Amino acid sequence: MKRTALVLTAAGLLALTGCTGSDSGAEASATSLAPYTPGDTVASAASQAAEDQAAASQARATAEAAASSASSVGKFGQTFTYTDGLEVAVAPPEDFQPSDSAAGNTPGKAAVTLSITITNGTSANYDPAIFSASVQSGTSPEEQIYDSANGIAGAPSTTLLPGRSVTFEVAFTATDPGDLVVEVTPGFEYNSSIFTS
C-alpha cells in the first residue's frame, strides 16, 4: 500500500513537472515568436533614411563651403564665380596720376587704377563694404591710394541686392606696373581670388 502511494505520488510529480516544463516551453516559444509589427521596421528604416539624408546634406554643405572658400587664380578681365553665385571681375590695370591730396601715394612712384565689378548672384544681400583688395608689384607689396579728388574711395558702402552689379575703382602704387598680382577677398566667408597679367 505504501509502495503504491509512493508510485502514485512520483507519477503525480512527474506529471506536474511535465506540465510546467511544457508551459515554460510554450511561453518561450510565444516570446521568441512574438507577432511581427511592420510599423517598428518602417519607423527604423525611415529613421535610418533620415540620418543618411542628413549626412549627405552635411557632406554637400562641407564640399560647397570648401569650394566657395578655395582660392582661384585668373587673368585680368576674367570673372570668378563663387559657389554661392557671387561674381568678381578685375579689369586690366590702367596708369593713374594721383592728385596732390591723395592718401597712400608715394610721390614719384608709378600708380595704377583697377576697375572691379561685383555681381550679386546669391539669394541674399551683399555688403560690398567688407570687400578688400591688395596688390603686389614685382617683389613689393603696394600701398592702396585713396584719392577723393579723382573719385577713388575704395569699395562702395551701399548694400548690393540679389541680381545687381556694382563697378568701382581702386588705386595702388606700382613698382612695376607691368607685373601686378591683385588679390581680392569679398568677405570673411570667402577666400581670395587672384588676378594677374
UniProtKB/TrEMBL annotation:
PROSITE patterns assigned: PROKAR_LIPOPROTEIN
Source organism: Modestobacter italicus (strain DSM 44449 / CECT 9708 / BC 501)
This protein's name: DUF4352 domain-containing protein
Signal peptide: 1-21
Highest taxon in the source lineage: Bacteria
Alphabetic keyword roster: Signal
